[in-house]
Amino acid sequence: MYTTGLADERVRWINTIASIEANVVNVTGDILICSGCVAYLTPFTDHLYSNVCRSLFERNKLHFAFLLCVRILINAGKLDPHEWHYFLAGGSPTKIAEK
Q1: Residue 18 DSSP symbol
Q2: Which of 27, 45, 60, 89 is geometrically suited to a Cys-Cys bond with 56, CB 3.0 to 4.6 A?
């Protein structure tokens, strides 16, 4: 039991890593589908906003409004997704380390 236990764990870890890598490939498509749904449902944005804000805490309403606005701007082509990612992630690690 103890002699094959670590070998079995290694196989299990390799299989888990392979399944995670397969799921990461699907994330991009899932995000694209969600973005398309938001773009399609833009006329319902006001209704969605009011319903969601009713269930949010007061401190989270501004965050939700900001994220909703950003997603609408990205879908309308008025905000570059790369700029949004740069805003979220900041500069490269070397630029941050220099400061």
Answers
A1: H
A2: 60
